[in-house]
User: Fold this.
Amino acid sequence: MARNEVVLWSGGFDSTLILHDLITKGIIPFALTVTHINNLLINKEKESRDKLEKRLGEFDRKEYICGKATDTVADFTRDYWLTELFNYMPDNSNVYMGIHMLDVIGRKPVRKEFDDFIADFESKAQQKGINVKLELPLEHMYKDDILEKMWELGLFTDCWNCEGPQGLLPCGECMPCKRVGKWRSKHENRNSWI
Ligand SMILES: [Zn+2]
Assistant:
């Protein structure tokens, strides 16, 4: 039986690159988005995914909103996002997640958190009776390389990454905004030499 190719899709740079790469290989992936009801960016993120969907080629897509109004989004992410995912995950799936080098080496504790996550993922799925294999195709890439690729593919502008927008605009202050801003200015300087 063919396995399902499931991408955990936020609409950000990493998961969108994975989706793009699978489609380019002739695979029709299933993009799964599980968001918490209290996520303030819920509409903004969805808007990005809607735009990207039109540009990426053929894939299947499902979005679920879960959680209780009394949760914080951080509680959800830390305590039960992983479990919640398996309620929507088809059996026999390769599950793609956009973890990259910064996640592996740029956060503390350096390696343990990452290893725990991976160990938990497949075993938690098994407890739910679902067979999954976690795939981390960006594991050895740096964020700048990912941004570079997304720029070349023309998908950069449609991705949303700000964690705390001011109205409809990115804040420029949060970690993802700063990272993208730094890359963008480096990119623009380099192009001005040509
Ligand atoms: Zn921001």
User: Anything to note?
Assistant: The chain has a mean pLDDT of 86. Residues 37 and 68 are 7 Å apart (CA to CA). Residues 175-193 form the longest helix (19 residues). Strands lie at 4-8, 30-36, 60-66, 93-96, 132-135.
